[in-house]
Amino acid sequence: MNLPAVLAIYRFEMARFWRTALQSIVAPVIATSLYFVVFGAAIGARVQTVDGIPYGAFIVPGLIMLSLLTQSISNAAFGIYFPRFAGTIYELLSAPIAPFEVVLGYVGAAATKSIFIGLVILATAALFVPLHIEHPFWMVAFLLLTAVTFSLFGFVIGLWADGFEKLQLVPLLIVTPLTFLGGSFYSIEMLPPFWHAVSLANPVVYLVSAFRWAFFGKGDVAVGVSIAVTFGFLALCLGLVTWIFRTGYRLKS
Amino acid sequence: MPPIVSIENLSKVYASGLHALKDVNLAIDKGEIFALLGPNGAGKSTLINTVCGIVTPSSGTIRVGGHDNRSDYRAARRMIGLVPQELTTDAFEKVWDTVSFSRGLFGLGKNPDHIERVLKDLSLYEKRDNRIMQLSGGMKRRVLIAKALAHEPQVLFLDEPTAGVDVELRQDMWRLVRRLRDQGVTVILTTHYIEEAEEMADRVGVIRKGEIILVEDKVELMRKLGKKQLTLHLAEPLAALPESLAGYALHLGPGGREIVYTYDTQRERTGITRLLTDLAAAGIGFTDLDTQQSSLEEIFVDLVRGHTGAAP
């Protein structure tokens, strides 16, 4: 195990995060505050409670998930895409470092960043609405699991992308819509039966539901199913990364 | 002593079908400066990148310090420092940080003293807190070299180190390479500046269309393939060479004012003494004479051309 290399990559990536602190931290805080103002105040004034939970508090888990998913993906994707774009990847490829260690450094840093942002949003939310977390251990566990899974997914995107456009394609055109439609701001129970059934095909539903369960003790789908779906996606991403490094796809000629 | 880098039957066919390396065999001795010469697209970079692990070979084996570069890649790569041809650097990192990063990547713990020494050797120490994007092209090149030296490699690959580099940096680089060699580091450089190889190298390899067509000690190469020319400046211009000198490879210079004699240094006899005697007998006097030896550049051009069979 080349631990100094893992740490070097991790520190390099974290330095990038702090260098762009304004964009990395301040932007999500402002965005979250805006969501609270718009959704919490405007809709919350009409929809008092969902499933017995005050609307303002109800949207907190979904909001954190929204940032967690987009931040994990974009951080990890950019982290590995940029060296490929700039050519500095040569150093990574010629270093005595195993693929697993490369992934550990990049995905570890991306997950750290998005967890940090998730916690910042949680703290921001606590300023707007009184929050009570029913299962703190599971809350943290889901935060970790989601951050790692989607950082891994972002890493795959960063390896696959051959331009800045593709880098943004998946987060903007797939992940954001799925998150908005994944019950971040409503319970899918509120939907007509057909759209409820369609929503169950959206993986983000399971993430948001499980996270909401950790907060309030109830979710749209059973927690066990949520965990199984998340691990399934994690396994898929791990498989993809392994295949990429084994074949050298987009990395080596 | 076993070679520090040994390449056996190495071939590389890119996905595009390009046959970049054809059954390359090469052994690099520990502590030597080896210059790999070849025209653009000959396979120099592919060869280096394959040894360093950036390009996957189609077949063949590579050993560095006895370690197979695929099955025992960690040990093999730890010994190698690579300075790539392109100026590929980060933009926002500081010089000190990027060089320390490289050391970490190669599995070594922090060693500020070593980093400081490397930066000072490359006249980069004053710039250590500058962001890389603030540096000039030449300075960026120095940063790449510093990164390659951060983990104290035993084999250093310099891929076109002096392409687009000013005279000062070139001379700094030559000094650095010699100092590294004195420390026992093996240096393998590619270049198409022949004078660089002539100046620096102990041995020279010539690669053409993916094939190593020659590997030779530099001095030996120049002696073997170098032709010498003797120019005689005549006292009186000649209209034509006399019949009695037809047996020599002579050439009458412009205006009939000089005779040029080309001879092979490899031959047991150069024929000079006999030529001078014959000249005297023919009544040709000369005021001055000089000799010239062909440079490595001329030898190189001859070699590469000779193999294409194109130019005369």
Describe the protein's architecture and organization.
Chain A: It is found in: Cell inner membrane; Membrane. Chain A: It is a multi-pass membrane protein. The complex is a heterodimer of chains A (253) and B (312). Chain A has 253 residues and is mostly helical. Helix content of chain A is 77%, strand content 2%. Chain A has one domain. Chain A has a two-stranded antiparallel sheet. In chain A, helix 1 runs parallel beside helix 5 and helix 3 runs antiparallel to helix 5. Chain A is globular. Chain A starts with a helix and ends in a 6-residue tail after the last helix. Chain B has 312 residues and is α/β, with parallel strands linked by helices. Chain B is built from ten helices and 14 strands. A six-stranded mixed β-sheet of chain B has the order 6-7-8-3-9-10, sandwiched between helices. A four-stranded antiparallel β-sheet of chain B has the order 2-1-4-5. In chain B, helix 3 packs parallel to helix 5. The C terminus of chain B is likely disordered. The interface between A and B is medium-sized, with 26 and 36 residues.
Write the layout of secondary structure elements.
The complex is a heterodimer of chains A (253) and B (312).
Chain A: H1 3-19, H2 21-43, E1 49-50, E2 53-54, H3 55-86, H4 89-94, H5 99-128, H6 136-160, H7 164-180, H8 193-199, H9 203-216, H10 223-247
Antiparallel strand pairs in A: 1-2
Chain B: E1 5-13, E2 19-28, E3 33-37, H1 44-52, E4 59-64, E5 67-68, H2 73-78, E6 80-83, H3 95-105, H4 112-121, H5 137-149, E7 155-159, H6 167-182, E8 186-191, H7 194-200, E9 203-208, E10 211-217, H8 218-225, E11 227-234, E12 250-252, E13 258-264, H9 272-281, E14 286-293, H10 296-308
Helix pairs in contact in B: 3-5
